[in-house]
Design goal:
The complex is a heterodimer of chains A (about 110) and B (about 110). Chain A has no helices and 11 strands. Chain A is mainly β and about 110 residues long. In chain A, strands 2, 4, 5, 9, 10 and 11 form a 6-stranded mixed β-sheet that branches. In chain A, strands 1-3-8-7-6 form a 5-stranded antiparallel β-sheet, with no helix packed on it. Classes of the chains: A mainly beta (about 110), B mainly beta (about 110).
Chain lengths: ~110, ~110
Amino acid sequence: TQLLEQSPQFLSIQEGENLTVYCNSSSVFSSLQWYRQEPGEGPVLLVTVVTGGEVKKLKRLTFQFGDARKDSSLHITAAQPGDTGLYLCAANFGNEKLTFGTGTRLTIIP
Amino acid sequence: EAGVTQSPTHLIKTRGQQATLRCSPISGHTSVYWYQQALGLGLQFLLWYDEGEERNRGNFPPRFSGRQFPNYSSELNVNALELEDSALYLCASAAYYGYTFGSGTRLTVV
């Protein structure tokens, strides 16, 4: 069974601060996606990374895919209240379904 | 294009009853994935349908079942409901870049 562990599970920071959340697995994955979910809604895709060592930027969000293809990180610069939500990583381990991580619940305090 | 639609939005059932949840994928998409999300945490894979066939199944008991219709819409059935089946049930339509989720059906078993 492939597992994806995210850390921290909960994070509460002040507006304007920077933060990083992590996604780790003991198995290699072929691709990884990050989603953000707000209360009462389904997760929304933020980015897909497929190449080891790949870095993608989406405005204030920077996503990195580890060289060994077993980990990923999401860094947010100058967090804003609109960044509040549940952040989920999801990996494809080659079995044609996404395995989701345990989630990081982020709260940005104005 | 229209997104993924799920119905009903909320469903309240009594323990032992059956629940039927419905999903329509993005037009032209043939795959539908079902996930269970309990307590606002990570998503657990339930079922994958493609071209009318069940392609993969998660680690759930047989009372969780479903089907996919010729128009690629899908139904998830949960028989003999138990209290721990209370959760948000999410349906996703898949493309090469990632999943698009519906807003989910909140099932409450009392």
